Amino acid sequence: MLSPPGREDRANDHQGKARQLRAPNEGGDGRAVAARHTARKVLVYLKVDPVSIDLRPGFTRDVSNIGHYATGDLEVTLAQMEDLERSKALLQQSYEAS
97 φ, ψ to 5°? Predict the structure, then answer.
């Protein structure tokens, strides 16, 4: 479960910029996910090795060689509700890695 509003470890403000959310977990730094919203989609950054999965254009992207203010090397684009369902296994994998 993520921390309630007001208790996040914020990387930036909430105006479409990255926001670090702490997920309680044993060990690690507790940063399982970072999210950034735009007008039509949510970008989620996860602690998942992009080499370990099949990248899908428009859904997953390797950001390990791109400078960004977020946790993790995998960017997941959530543009519709079906994307959230498709991302559940990746979210779980990131949570377990943190």
Answer: -80, -15
* DSSP classification of residue 25: -
**Token reading at 48:** 């998942």
3-state secondary structure (DSSP) of residue 94: helix
**Residue 11 resides in a domain:** no
Considering the domain boundaries, does residue 5 fall inside one?
A: no
How is residue 60 annotated by DSSP?
Answer: E
The answer to whether 20 and 70 are in contact (CB under 8 A) is yes
pLDDT digits over 2-55, tens only?
Answer: 444 444 444 444 445 555 444 544 555 566 778 888 889 999 999 999 999 999
The β-bridge relationship of strands 42-46 and 60-62 is unpaired
Domain count for the chain, please give it.
Answer: 1
Residues spanned by the domain of 32: 19-97
